[in-house]
Specification:
516 residues; Dipeptide-binding Protein, domain 1; 15 helices; globular; alpha+beta; 6-stranded mixed β-sheet; Peptide/Ni-bd; Dipeptide-binding Protein, domain 3; SBP_5_dom; peptide transmembrane transporter activity; SBP_5
């Protein structure tokens, strides 16, 4: 049996995202000497749910957690390998069952308390609760040992090849033993981690301010005094505030604003390499969308190329499989259902609603892009007797409807958090994978068993055969429609240096600095 060495080796799949000629991919690191100090404000349209590492299923919460906490390992920026973080080295036993992690000496939490293997053991066990959002990611672990304060051993039930990658997921961030004597809920309101920043202020549903952690283990970092994540649902307002200097970064500006933003002095727009996949999501538990023929009828009405041209202004490529092409598990043979009104009519005729029906598309009120996509689908659906009503909700109401299954159709996206495909295969396609199949509530028990089987295989080629089957089943059932693969788009002040989001989404703000 092959035993993986210090770094989990990952084959790559070539991906070519179509971008307008005026766009650049990730900026190169600044050649200038970083300047310490300054306050960065990041504007966003999405609402965070929690800052306790084992809880948030949303990027808005995850990307803040990753600034307050550290994991044992860290994905490389290109998501093709792993790097040391709180663990300086890692190795597997000959039988592939036990992994040993050597911890970095001298690490402290933001309250000055030393971090030891006792904290690591507690953190991993907390995130292993099968009832938790991310318990599935640690389901292979049978026991965790602490031979000494700077050594942790993780033993799995069977050889489990994704284990090192799993140690790099935000949900396995290291928290103090027993939450520092607090309840889990109280800790979540005022979290303490070993990351580059610590929480200063959190006005839920409005803003989160984090400040430099004076005990951070990486010498000289972070450069910034503080970072404020501010919820601004309206895309135009976000764009105006970056232009006006009230904020420095706009997280996901609307595609329609890009041309204007690129001509604004002092503002830069960059499309960063990303594993993001954008979807049209159906509530698979709600009639008539519980009918596969209804879902297929709507899928045939999605003109992906038209959406990419009209809504994203040519950014991205039409999606087929629900796994991103940045993953070696991506099934390139899957092209998805093509735009075809005649086939849409035929599928509807086979459904429980052959004469059509009425449904609602939920969109966040400030998202120009989602509103445009909804209008395009609304127009197409009318051609075969389906009436789609567009329901604009504020971010809080939109999230509540999603979590309570009280929606018909919505738009969404996901990105990977680790370099192994196991996470997103489950999160977006398996009901108990942490995201309820990206809140489509799609439940394919055969695929769930295949996902469990895949992680027992210590051979990438054989694992890919299994993942190909899961993606084919997903394509046949159309629980949601993969719309397009796209880079992550950001607009930001030219004063912002070394802002380079990872393919996995991590911001790594410890390296960001501001020119005076």
């Amino acid at each position: 049996m092959k035993i993986l060495s210090k770094k989990l080796l990952v084959a790559t799949v070539a991906v070519s995202l179509v971008l307008p000629a005026s766009f650049s991919f990730s900026q190169v690191a600044s050649a200038a000497t970083p300047v310490k100090g300054g306050n960065l404000t990041i504007l966003r349209g999405d609402l965070e749910s929690s800052l306790t590492p084992s809880i948030p299923p949303d990027n808005a919460g995850i990307w803040v957690v990753e600034e307050i906490f550290d994991t044992l390992l860290l994905p490389a920026r290109d998501a093709k390998s792993l790097k040391p973080s709180l663990a300086t080295s890692w190795s597997a036993s000959k039988d592939g069952l036990t992994w040993t992690f050597k911890l970095r000496s001298g690490v402290k939490f933001s309250d000055g308390t030393p971090m030891t293997s006792k904290d690591v053991k507690f953190s991993l066990e907390e995130n292993s609760d099968p009832a938790g959002n991310w318990g599935f990611i640690n389901s292979s672990i049978s026991k965790i040992g602490t031979p000494d304060p700077l050594t942790v051993t993780v033993t799995t039930k069977t050889p489990y090849s994704p284990l090192p990658a799993v140690m790099a997921i935000f949900a396995n961030s290291i928290v103090p033993f027993n939450y520092g004597g607090k309840t889990k809920e109280a800790f979540g309101d005022n979290p303490i981690g070993t990351g580059p920043f610590k929480l200063a202020t959190w006005t839920k549903g409005q803003l989160i301010k984090i400040v430099r952690n004076p005990y951070y283990w990486e010498a000289g970092k972070p450069y910034l005094d503080s970072v404020t994540f501010k919820l601004v649902p309206d895309a135009n307002t976000r764009a105006n505030q970056v232009q006006g200097g009230q904020a420095q970064v706009n997280e996901f500006p609307s595609y329609s604003s890009v041309k204007t933003l690129k001509s604004v002095k002092g503002v830069k727009v960059t499309a960063f390499d990303s594993s993001a996949v954008h979807y049209l999501i159906f509530n698979n538990t709600k009639a008539p969308l519980s009918d596969v023929h209804v879902r297929k009828a709507l899928a045939y009405l999605v003109d992906k190329k038209a959406i990419i041209a009209a809504v994203t202004f040519g950014i991205g490529t039409a999606a087929g499989a629900y796994m991103s092409p940045t993953s070696w598990a991506h099934n390139v043979s899957i092209k998805g259902l093509p735009y075809n009104v005649a086939k849409a009519k035929a599928e509807l005729a086979l459904s429980t609603q052959p004469k059509g029906f009425t449904a609602t598309i939920n969109v966040t009120s400030g998202s120009a892009d989602d509103n445009s996509k909804a209008q395009i689908l609304q127009s197409e659906a009318a051609k075969i007797g389906i009436t789609l009503k567009i329901n604009q909700l504020d971010p809080s109401a939109w999230t509540e409807a999603r979590n309570n299954k009280s929606y018909d159709i919505m738009f969404g996206y996901c990105t990977t958090d680790i370099i192994d495909p196991d996470e997103i295969i489950r999160f977006a396609g398996i009901i108990d994978g942490g995201g309820s199949s990206l809140w489509s509530y799609y439940d394919n028990k055969t695929s769930a068993k295949l996902a469990n089987d895949a992680v027992l295989v210590d051979n990438q080629a054989k694992r890919k055969v299994i993942y190909d089957k899961i993606q084919l089943a997903f394509d046949a059932d159309q629980p949601m429609v993969p719309l397009f693969y796209a880079p992550n788009l950001y607009s930001y002040s030219t004063k912002v240096q070394d802002f380079q989001p990872f393919v996995t989404g991590n911001y790594n703000l410890r390296n960001v600095w501001l020119t005076k």
